[in-house]
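INFO  loader      accepted 1 record
INFO  loader      residues=193
INFO  predictor   begin
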Amino acid sequence: MSVSSVIRFARTSTILLAALLSVPSVSPSSAAADEPVSQTENTLRLADGASSPPESIEAMRWLAGRWVGEGLGGEVEEIWAEPQDGQMMGMFRFVSEGKVVFYELMTLVEDQGSLKLRVKHFGKDFVGWEEKSDSVEFRWVGQSDGRIDFEGLSFRPDPDGERLTIHLAMKSAGKIEEGNFRFRRAPLGATAK
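INFO  predictor   done
INFO  writer      dumping tokens
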């Protein structure tokens, strides 16, 4: 995938992600009304009208540190700070063909007794993609069977905590697709490869 294709895909997918999170999906008729429903093969969303279940930032403490890997045809890096005051801050960088394509600044926050992941995107020139006061938000869905879910976003850490797969629901050209990222823990200062 060329750098311009990745930028176009990432910008279009991210801008439409907020709309995707409100796209209803079909749930089995036997499922309880408040049970999460599938959004893509590996992501969930809250059922229509359901609230995020209770959770604290401590549920995400394991994420703190530096993660490097591959996704969307390029190299990816994510760094998360330890929780403080009910929040964690993070950054993401996407590199293709040795060149930075875009960045994300992120916060994981306790919100109304649950969690919310907020993301703002920036081009390599640090010009924001979302409006000044807007961000892409992922509401907490829950955790079970080794997976941690926000709406349209699923974290799958290996039991040893050294590897992580992230599945992301994205809407592009009217179609819902899933992006997959594979990370491994890395010390600060080490190269991403």
